[in-house]
Design a protein that fits this description.
With 351 residues, the chain is α/β, with parallel strands linked by helices. The chain is built from 9 helices and 8 strands. It has a single domain, classed as 3-Layer(aba) Sandwich (Rossmann fold). The protein is globular and about 45 Å long.
């Protein structure tokens, strides 16, 4: 069923703004509100400030700098470990050809060999500007997704720039998705989730599946997605200085390195400009204080116009990939609860 007419991008509320099938929260995502006590507005404000300071002092100056890329990757992985992950999630490693993937599964789902048939699955495509990231950096956050959804979460170590350029990351993501299905998972109970650069890879991968006539996932979630490598969104200039994590200079270098000679507005590297008609129901989350804000808002508008069921949540005063700070931020925990609710509804219905 085609979504109801869209009233445009809704104004921001204290937590988030849903955009999608209808304006009523009952038909989309019910915004999570901080509860009394430790999740008070005062605590939220303090934790946001601490997170911003950490990113500005320890992440932003190093990532995308002239330091060796190997050092940047190790530094980012060490910082991400501060955010931590939940207990009670089992980890194992599987292979899709030469591509390593971590499988993350809530421990109370069973012990020993896992039969994936009949279980919900999430393919998680990590961010990192196509240059950093990987299983060790994102295993904590992906474990959190496994814990809140109860699904088997697969985290592939797709190959990175500058050693590897497009289409290699998308090819790896495609192979990872095929491997998930070959393990026995039903595509009707499988979702693709991606953050930042991984969000762009997610859209490209799902489009490739549909173009090849292969069964696509039942749902997709995009967290602060980078969908326009040409950086043509107004937020790049208007919001960029408020973003404590990403710098335009790094994004420009990372985009050129990933595109490997393609025009930066080519749909093969900037899926914002691709044909979006074949996408599954999609949830998009973005902060209002991130340089890539307009990637999310424009994607939601274009996807909706193409007939896709899309829900957009904009979180006031929050930054790129703030969900990674769920250990510290009540709003981040609420955002993850919204993701879990969205996936439960979509995967239980088989798409």
């Amino acid at each position: 069923m085609r979504p109801a007419p869209l009233p445009g991008i809704l104004g921001n509320c204290a937590t988030c703004s849903p955009l999608g099938r209808a304006a009523a929260p009952a038909d989309g995502i019910t915004p999570r509100r901080p509860s009394p006590g430790i999740e008070s507005p005062v605590m939220e404000t303090l934790m946001r400030a601490a997170s911003r300071i950490t990113l500005r002092l320890l992440f932003r100056p190093v990532i995308g700098s002239r330091l060796p890329i190997g050092f940047q990757r190790r530094w980012a992985a060490a910082l991400t470990r501060i955010a931590g992950g939940p207990r009670g999630v089992e980890r194992s490693e599987i292979w899709a050809g030469e591509l390593a993937m971590k499988r993350l599964r809530r421990a109370d789902a069973g012990v020993g060999p896992v039969d994936p048939s009949g279980r919900e699955a999430v393919l998680y495509l990590h961010g990192g500007g196509f240059e950093i990231g990987g299983g060790e950096m994102y295993v904590g956050f992906a474990s959190r997704i496994a814990a809140i959804t109860g699904a088997d979460v697969y985290l592939p170590d797709y190959r990175l720039a500058p050693e590897h350029t497009q289409p290699t990351p998308t090819d790896d993501a495609f192979a990872a998705y095929r491997a998930v299905l070959e393990l026995g998972h039903d595509p009707g109970r499988t979702a693709v989730v991606g953050d930042s650069a991984g969000g762009g890879i997610a859209v490209s991968t799902v489009r490739t599946l549909r173009e090849m006539g292969l069964p696509g996932p039942a749902a997709m979630v995009l967290i602060s997605p980078w969908l326009d490598l040409s950086l043509s969104g107004a937020s790049v200039g208007l919001v960029g200085r408020r973003d404590p994590m990403l710098r335009r200079e790094w994004l420009e270098r990372a985009a050129r390195g990933h595109a490997a000679g393609l025009h930066l507005d080519d749909p093969r590297v900037s899926p914002l400009f691709a044909d979006l008609r074949t996408l599954p129901p999609t949830l998009v989350q973005v902060g209002t204080d991130e340089i890539l804000l307009d990637d999310s808002t424009r994607f939601a508008e274009r996807a909706y116009a193409a007939g896709v069921e899309v829900e957009l949540q904009r979180f006031d005063g929050l930054f790129h990939d703030f969900q990674v700070f769920a250990r510290l931020l009540p709003t981040a925990r609420g955002a993850l609860d919204d993701i879990a609710s969205f996936l439960r509804r979509r995967l239980a219905a088989g798409g």
